[in-house]
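Anyone else keep sequences and structure tokens together like this?

Example one:
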Amino acid sequence: MPKVEDLIQLGFSLQKAGKYEDAEHAYQEALSQDNDNAEIYNLMGVLKLQQNDVISAVHMAELAVEKNPNAYFYETLFQTYIRAGIYKQIVAREHEVMEKFPDDFSLLFNLALAHKNLRHIPEAIKYYDRALRINPASYDAWFNLSHLYSVEGETKNAVSALKICQKIRPHDNDTDYFLSLALMRVKDYKHGLKLFENRLCRETAFALLNKSYPNKARKDNLWDGKNIKNKTLLVYYEAGFGDVIMFSRYLPLVKQKCRKLIFYCQKPLSPLFKINKQLGIDEIVDKYIPEDQIDFDYHIPLLSLPYVLKLSGEKVFAHSDGYLHADKTMVEEYRKKYFDNNKLKIGIKWQGNTYYDQDRVIPSTAFIPLMEVENTQFYSLQTFEGAEDIKDLNNIVDIGKDLLDFSQTAAALSNLDLVICNDTSLAHLAGAMGIPCWIVLPYEVNWRWHTDLSVCDWYDSVRLFRQHKLNDWNGVFEDVKAEMLRRIEMCNSR
């Protein structure tokens, strides 16, 4: 009969060769001789992970640790927990691990990762710090730590962590991109915008345009700020509606640089931009046009404009107050249809595109305390996804069901006294139109709102309200209601 050690070695060789069933047979035969051998259970745990049998992998790894709680077996166990998505099980073993292996980098890293995924931010930061004292060259630890610093609003620490990541992995696009966000959040646009050119949506937008117009949209005619006074420039959208509205502020500056400006935008935005002649757009494109029917000399994705224009400091925010407006006739039509009353008219929206970010979704019921304020009329501007949640609200006018494009939304907004919404395109539209807007932010704040949340640098009419702790919508809406009552009292006392 083969010895246990020989069976383990045979199983390990078969496992390395990808012969998993034969390897398992060898391990099972070894276990029949030595049922308390922790090494076999550990190898079986790894084997089951390779076979994508995560439940069995967890069981085997737990048996290994039970029979011999050494650091290597704990590492296998934590990997099975991570694959199973049961991070609470890692945290549950926190004290035993710290008692036995307080200086094991891998286990400290996994504890940090578990806390990170459970949104225990201070604990995750603590364990990444401890892990980095042991291995200060760990890119993953520094990178994850930078994200946690950003969540906590410790943006200068996030910048420092990402600069260390740059030294560990020079010329890494992901590092440069996230460093750009951290730099822009602290308003260092001089350095941030250059690194922002590493964003994925820029490359995606350029690749799509190049596929549509391979003979005209080439790398060699990607506008880099050179003199194009007598040339035609195509500016094309990237990212979401809110980004396009926000960065459209730069189109008048671009128009001063070229003879003809063509703007390629999403179809729902097209009617709005056609109304706003002051942007200097000569031609708007909102669908594919054959290459022989479109003519331009240079092209550039929209979000690259402030970098190419060499804007920094306060010039990045430059715009005329209310740089977008609605069609006056349409505004009057909406007034007659929905807004012919003497109440304080407040528009709300609770959800944007959940593909990008779930944290920015506000439960519609969070608005109920605001709707209890006397002499107010609330209007839902929620469209498409999330619109069904209006059923949880009473005494609200549903305008969202009639809004098919942003020109209609702009007309509705023009009749409102105030907009209260999540971080979404509606907020950018209200801000761009100079309409009072309160944006209710999650705990993890997007880079564009910076670190001083008492003001909004991008829009004079916007005020920002941030959660005090993760997922606490009730607390931030108490702040919103208090401010709302204070404003109403001020108006009544005049």
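And example two:
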Amino acid sequence: MLKAFAVVIGVLIFLLALGVASFLAYRYYGNRNVKDTKNLEEIVGRIGDGYVNKNGNVGLVVGVVRGDRVFIRGFGKKSKERGDAPDAPTIFELASIGKIFTASAAQILSDRGEISFDDSVDKYLNPTVKICEKAKNITLRQLATHTSGLPSFPESFVPKIKDVLNPYKDLTVQDLYDYLAICENLGEVGSFDYSNLGMGVLGHILELKTGKSYETIVKDEIIKRLEMKNTTITLSAEHRELLAQGYNEQGNPNPVWEDAVLTGAGSFLSNAEDMTKFIRANFDASRSEISDSLIKTHEKQSGAKTGLGWHYYSRFFAVVTDEEDVIWHNGGAGGYASFMAVNKKTKSGVIVLSNTADDVTWLGTRLNFSAKNISFSDE
């Protein structure tokens, strides 16, 4: 009886494995043989409308790039109080997508010989800053690839939070230095562990090296050169007129997060108009004067899990979905969410900006897959 039962279980496991293998083979083939229906605009509209209606999002803007072609469409509303839809100029908080600016600025400075990614942090931090022995030899490359062992948000920072809707606002540089002196919860150096603190430290090191604010560095090295006129940390009156109101997970208004210390972790705001320019600048070296440096940040690091700042999909997901040449990053703040992807092989990409704190990574991944495979109606 037990032998017969074991045989039945074995057969079921075999059939299940066969079914899974068949499904994966089907998806593998299908993802490499997508029919081009030449209706990308319609697909973007259908996906965007469906997402906003289903998830209760207030507003969303999608920018799709294919070579030199750019298509931008807004969905929903800029705020619950205003009926107008967001559009190409509408500004949203980028959150962690700003980490790509940090890594890119560091690469530009490296190309000029001002820093080296293989230097350790103690070379650049103020000589009066005490650094625990375990952290002294962390390199700038490890900061840029989330392999520094630094936690994302140290426990010692939690008591510093005075406003839960704006958690980074009251942190000071001294809080950062106090942490580096003791390094509590420092993980294994060399192992991937996503860290807001690590990228924040990298941004601070760029400030110490150049004598400029982080915002000025990124604007001088990237924003001005790509003519991204509405990409900023400091909001002018004109910027505020373009700003979409952010909403938290409870659907309540949430302010733009402020930060004077970990700005390198993601403090910039932007719009689809500007971010599609940044995407195109990452296609090839001829696109802009800084494109050669931007492309260097794509190089796979630390076991092919990341570039400098950029993420790569897991090997399994990338092979099954034919997304092996895609680099991406997402972002999430108190009232905003974002996603950006670049397909290096097909020179296509997407930017998704939402004024609701609802992760848009899967939405962006779907749109990016469409942008790679489907043409615009007049192509």
